[in-house]
Structures are given as structure tokens and as C-alpha cells.
Amino acid sequence: MATPRTKNPVPSWIENPYPRLEHSFVEFPAKHILLVTINRPEFMNCLPVEATIELGALWKWYDAEPELRCAVFTGAGKKAFCAGMDLKQRLDIINTNDIAFEYPQGGFGGMTNRTGKKPIIIACNGHAHGGGFEIVLNADVIFASPNATFCLPEVLRGVSALAGALPRAMLLFGNHRTMDLILTGRRMPVKEALDWGLVKEIVPQEKLLQRAIDYAQEIADKSPDSVIITRLGAREVWETGVSRATMRGQELYAEAMLRSKNAAEGLAAYREKRDPKWLPSYL
């Protein structure tokens, strides 16, 4: 196993080395707390497939590491938590007809369809768009900076948010609010996200990360077994309702969508910084 990349030494209470990371880094800001930071600020912290595979392995390691009790997940910089998948990479895969690596069981970022055992707190330090919003929707508690926005822009790109966001948003927000978000691709400002109950608190950027870490410490101070069991008991609706809905969406629509001419057109327009020219649908 490669030497772990971290901003500070791995503490002695960590029993097993964590998986190798190229696109994120980890820290241990307090006993029992894992801090994970997506480290692609120059790309708005969007995730190529390789980064998602790394994170999928990392969250499994986190669940298995005995002394870790709560995790905080954030992005580098002050503009974006995660702007979703690397759309330029996705377009290249479509154009070359290459075989894409499959996402881990937990989905995009290892999180969008993750059940897991232990809680993950989001410190949303900016935009959470596309897959980034899908990660947020399946996290446990969300703190956000004043500049945070939330968006599912897939209809603007000729694709669809099939990693779990659509059924999760429906359960969280209800039919009409969800349809407003997903059919327009509009950006939800952080105040609206607070009003809708998605965000717990809006925290100034310079205090955001510490607030999330302090909150994670509150959870870590509780019984680890009780936290795990209580969390899973409350999430049962996700696992019996949302997961099946996500699978059905992928079974019925995902391949046809990605093979459509409109998917290639939407992604090409994004790369070329122009408005897309949509074609009639044959789905």
C-alpha cells in the first residue's frame, strides 16, 4: 500500500493505514474525528472517476476503523464544495467509446448511495452542484457558508441526476419543490436551503470548518454503538425506498441517456462554453 498523503502525521490511535489518495487529503483534527477534503480547487473540486473510487474505499476504511466515530467532509478553497463529476472526462469517455470505471457501491464520491455505519457531516464551503449536491442530499448533517448554492443542472447538460438525488429530494422536499429544482436546473441559494431544512446552519466561511468539527466532536462524545444503531434505524426509509428507486432509474434510463446524442451535445456545449442545441428525444 502506498504511503498515505496527509497534512499531518497519522495519530497512533489509528490502527490501519487509509487507502491511497490523489485527489483528496485527510486530517485528524481531534480524537475520533476524520476530516476529508477534496483537493481540486482549480476545478471547483469536481471529481473524476478515479477520485470517486478513492473516496469509496476511504469511507469503507472509515467505517471499519475502530477509533473513528464521526467524519467531516469539505472541499478545498472558498468557491465550491464539489461541482459534481468531471464532465470533460465524461465527454471524452463518450467520444472515445472507452469503458468507464464503475463507481463504488456507495455511488458518486462514495456517498450518493452510501448506507455506511458512521455519520458524515458536510462543511459545504461553496457550490454543491450536480454530484456534489447528490452527496449533500445523502449526508447526515450539513453546515454551509453564505456563498453556498445547491443545484442539479443535469437538464442543462443533456443528462440526468440518477445517483440518488431525485428520490432523495422528493422525500426531503416534497413533489412541487423538487420538480421546481430538477426540471429547471436552477441554483438554490443557501438561505432557501436553510428554510427548506436541508442546511442546519449558515456559518461564516472562516468559522465553517471548525463549527463542523466541533459538531462532529459532539457526536463522537456519545456512545459509538448507539450512534451507529440510531443512525441506521432512522435511515431505514432511505434503504428500502430510495435505493430501489435509484436502482430502477439506473436500470431503465442511465445507459440510454448516456448514449443519446443530447448527452454528447450537452457535454460538448459545456466544454466549448456555448449554448447547447438540443435534438429531439428518442428515449
> What's the helix-strand series?
EEHEEHEEHEEHHHEHEHHHH
| The CATH C-level class name | Alpha Beta
| Total count of strands | 10
Number of helices: 11
Proportion in β-strands? 5-15%
Strand order of the largest sheet: 1-2-3-5-7-10
Q: Which radius of gyration do the C-alpha atoms yield?
A: 18 Å
CATH topology: 2-enoyl-CoA Hydratase, Chain A, domain 1
Distance between the termini: 44 Å
The computed structural class is alpha/beta
What's the name of the CATH homologous superfamily?
A: 2-enoyl-CoA Hydratase, Chain A, domain 1
Q: What is the molecular shape? A: globular
**How many domains would you count in the coordinates?**
1
Pathway: Mycotoxin biosynthesis
Keywords: Virulence
InterPro entries: ClpP/crotonase-like_dom_sf (IPR029045), Enoyl-CoA_hydra/iso (IPR001753)
Pfam families: ECH_1
What's the arrangement of secondary structure elements?
Elements: E1 24-30, E2 33-38, H1 49-64, E3 70-75, E4 80-82, H2 87-96, E5 120-124, E6 127-129, H3 131-137, E7 141-144, E8 149-151, H4 154-157, H5 165-173, H6 175-184, E9 187-189, H7 190-195, E10 201-202, H8 205-220, H9 224-234, H10 236-258, H11 261-272
Parallel strand pairs: 2-3, 3-5, 4-6, 5-7, 6-8, 7-10
Antiparallel strand pairs: 1-2, 8-9
Helix pairs in contact: 2-11, 5-6, 5-10
